[in-house]
Amino acid sequence: MNIAVIGTGYVGLVTGVSLAEVGHHVTCVDVDNDKISSLRKGNITIWEPGLEELLQKNITHGKLFFTTAHAIACENAQIIIIAVGTPENEDGSANLRYVEQAIIDIANTITHRVTIVVKSTVPVGTAHRMCTILQENLQHGVSVELVSNPEFLREGSAIEDAFRGDRIVIGADTLSAFDVMEEVYRPFRIPIYKTDVRSAEMIKYASNAFLATKISFINEIAAICEQVGANVDLVAAGMGMDKRIGDKFLKAGIGFGGSCFPKDTKALIQMARNVGYDFEILNRVVEVNERQKVLLVEKLLERFGSLEGKQIAVLGLSFKPNTNDIREAASITITERLIRHGAKVIGYDPIAIEYAKNRLNEQMTYAKDLEAAVSGCDAALILTEWDEIKEVDVRVYHVMKTPIVLDGRNCYPPEIMAQHHIEYHSIGRPSAGGQYIQ
Ligand code: UGA
């Protein structure tokens, strides 16, 4: 099929590349000239395992094209996928200006019947509202169908998710729209869940909010474990054996970050508020996450009294491993706080340093590797569970002034740290000697 994808951000690019890979003819369009010329050459600026190889392969095979002109992308398209961003407004609601612009651009361009697919995360009712805007702006005699098709890719495993996801959700109003979408996705062999447009839009928010709730829930359990002497990792493993609970998204730590959970939880709270409903659980999920982000700084303050003049290494800057994305990463809040408390901060990340430089406190410095980061430090904080950090020989921490590690992602067995005489504090787990910073 001939498919146009509007927006070459994270979701748009992965969608375009994976649709080309299964045999569709895909043209991706973006207003950013530099990005399009770099994508044409097969180069990407995001770090996503496997993406660049598939991009280059499909460009070479003549299945994937990039342009800044909507008219070129949409000219012969049977399907137009909108995958532009929906950033957060000040009140937490989703900002729809890019989606609306995409709809106007499509209306001004198409001269034939197409199926328009909203993949961007949008509040319930948006697709129908966009349909009205479209009808008002379309050329005489042209008709369209609008479909909701939310995205469930995770950064860092987006290619794996695109080809092995749990489900594809299609919300549509007509049988013909379902038929077209089944043709698009048939090669993926992933179960397709068909529903109405508004329910599809809600599935996206409800799924992200539920996963965020699991994380904040286990983080609350971790806080109680610290008081009663239990180990949250063992608790989560025992809970997860119950299939009704499942063992995923029960990893306690310093909370969720990234471009999706923080934004989508707030957008759902705001969406509920707009219809007069107070989403109490979700309010609390967000509050717990805010507290969780600064937990390590509080533990440090308790341990040292004052952080004035202390040298602190911050290991892992991206919001999670296998990405260079530092949007809403705990590293942002933590480095700000440490510097405000008078500490000198040295950051290290296997790949995100260049991106971090623009976003993190300019007073912080960066190290070329983990050993250089912790060398001579008073304490090391682990913020992201990169394999490189998890698999390091922990004796490296002996280059610190005194080896004190506060681990926000529970990377090491406390017994190993004790064996190597490293003072070790993690989340919701007693140290080998049963000690917590309370
Ligand atoms: C998330 C969802 O998992 C995707 O299904 C969804 O498509 C995407 O948002 C989106 O809406 O676009 P992503 O933000 O890439 O994907 O990353 P996750 O792997 O979900 O992790 C989010 C955050 O939660 C990370 O900061 C991670 O460290 C944290 N997390 C995750 C935990 O603290 N504990 C866990 O058990 C799992």
Automatic annotation (TrEMBL):
The keyword Oxidoreductase applies. It catalyses: UDP-alpha-D-glucose + 2 NAD(+) + H2O = UDP-alpha-D-glucuronate + 2 NADH + 3 H(+). Pathway: Nucleotide-sugar biosynthesis; UDP-alpha-D-glucuronate biosynthesis; UDP-alpha-D-glucuronate from UDP-alpha-D-glucose: step 1/1. Its EC number is 1.1.1.22. One of its GO terms (molecular function) is oxidoreductase activity. Residues 313-414 form the UDP-glucose/GDP-mannose dehydrogenase C-terminal domain. It is an enzyme of class 1 (oxidoreductase). SMART domains: UDPG_MGDP_dh_C. Keywords: NAD, Oxidoreductase. Belongs to the UDP-glucose/GDP-mannose dehydrogenase family. This is UDP-glucose 6-dehydrogenase. It comes from Ornithinibacillus xuwenensis.
